Amino acid sequence: MTAQFFLPDFDIVRASDGSHLPPPDDGFHADTVGEAPIPVGRVLVVDDERLIADTVAQVLNLHGYDAFTAYDGPEALKLAERFRPDYLLTDVMMPVMNGIDLARAVEEMLPSVKVLLFSGQAGTSALLQRQRVDDSHYNIVAKPIHPDKLVETLRNLRSRR
Questions:
Q1: Number of domains present in the structure of the chain
Q2: Distance (Å, rounded) from C-alpha 128 to C-alpha 32?
Q3: Within a domain: residue 126?
Q4: 5 in a domain, yes or no?
Q5: CA distance to 6, 13, 58, per residue, from 159 (Å)
Q6: pLDDT tens across 115-153, in order?
Q7: Range of the domain at 46
Q8: What percentage of the chain carries pLDDT values higher than 90?
Q9: Which H or E element spans position 42?
Q10: Which of 45, 100, 117, 133 could form a disulfide with 140 if both were Cys (CB 3.0 to 4.6 A apart)?
Q11: 76 falls in which pLDDT band (50, 70, 90)?
Q12: CATH assignment of the domain containing 58
């Protein structure tokens, strides 16, 4: 199942090849509107389907988040170390490293990261059952997800923990 998102045609996705990475985390993230700083959450979006990862990053960037993409778990771990995201938004079913294992590894590195899993595959239930046995609890949303619902879900995560 392929996620469907409806967006204006903007080219604002950052490449994950290293050429357009954001600067290392300096502890403060803000945009300005007039004189007042507005905090921006940093989001690492991970999905092995590049179109989905890029589209989700576009949606989040349009909503004021500082989002960029990785297309597999090992790449995401490397980028998380430098990018130091506030949020990890990852597909569950990916080759090499699934999203749950990725979330655990990123949480070890960044204990305050907020994790949101998303999946469009039925095989996710077995992984989630294993997760419950290990006593780790992540929020999960189904693909496709409406962009407004995705942003609302991330905002709700911000108020937890």
A1: 1
A2: 40
A3: yes
A4: no
A5: 27, 26, 23
A6: 999 887 655 555 555 555 455 578 888 888 899 999 999
A7: 39-158
A8: 49
A9: strand 42-46
A10: 117
A11: very high
A12: 3.40.50.2300
